[in-house]
Design goal:
mainly alpha; transmembrane; 8 helices; Helix Hairpins; globular; Four Helix Bundle (Hemerythrin (Met), subunit A)
Length: 207
């Protein structure tokens, strides 16, 4: 059965494969690699949640685990330098969902609002990862955003439009990325308010 969660799992699985591929070109000691491992860990928590949800919803849990469940479980393991090649098992997860592409398209057409919100969530996460990674890459030698932790904190206060000012980009590209991230945050919070309002109204109209 296709759900908005399955749609997000598909999108994030494809994105995580791209992150993993990029990480192969980075030094293990680099701060950019460290930042990517943080984001990968967050995605793994989401994938693990999806695995556990699927496991407990199955009537025959052992059958699920020994057929495809173990693949979902392995793909939920965070990046470990010695075993990170195993993460390409996520490709199987993607193929498994894409095989039901017709059902997926039907779900999107019948659940436009939920699907749109899912795509918005995906795009916001992608924007966060790409902008923070790019800012760290360009700022680490010239600005005060020099570590993965600095980049994470800067990203959080920027997308929430708080802007403490303790960390800030000094390059032209960094400032452009910050502007884009602020706009993304404003748009996302507006979408969340609209989505929640719509859900509350639907509950009121269907007591």
């Amino acid at each position: 059965m296709i759900t908005i969660n399955k749609l997000l799992v598909l999108l994030f699985s494809i994105f995580s494969i791209g992150l993993l591929t990029y990480s192969f070109f980075l030094s293990y000691e680099s701060q950019v690699y460290r930042l990517i491992t943080y984001y990968d860990f967050a995605l793994c928590i989401y994938f693990l949640y999806d695995f556990l949800k699927q496991l407990f919803s199955e009537e025959n849990k052992w059958r699920y685990f020994y057929t495809v469940g173990w693949l979902d479980f392995i793909s939920s393991i965070p990046v470990i330098t010695e075993f990170r090649v195993l993460r390409f098992i996520r490709v199987i997860r993607v193929i498994k969902i894409i095989r039901s592409i017709r059902t997926l398209i039907k779900f999107i057409s019948q659940n436009k609002k939920e699907s749109l919100f899912g795509f918005i969530v995906f795009l916001v996460v992608v924007s966060i990862v790409i902008t923070s990674t790019a800012v760290l890459y360009f700022e680490k030698d010239v600005g005060n955003i020099t570590t993965a932790e600095d980049a994470l904190w800067w990203t959080f206060i920027t997308i929430t439009t708080v802007g403490y000012g303790d960390y800030y980009p000094v390059t032209g590209f960094g400032k452009l990325a910050a502007s884009f991230l602020i706009a993304t945050g404003i748009g996302f919070f507006g979408a969340v308010i609209s989505f929640v309002t719509d859900k509350v109204n639907s509950i009121k109209s269907n007591p």
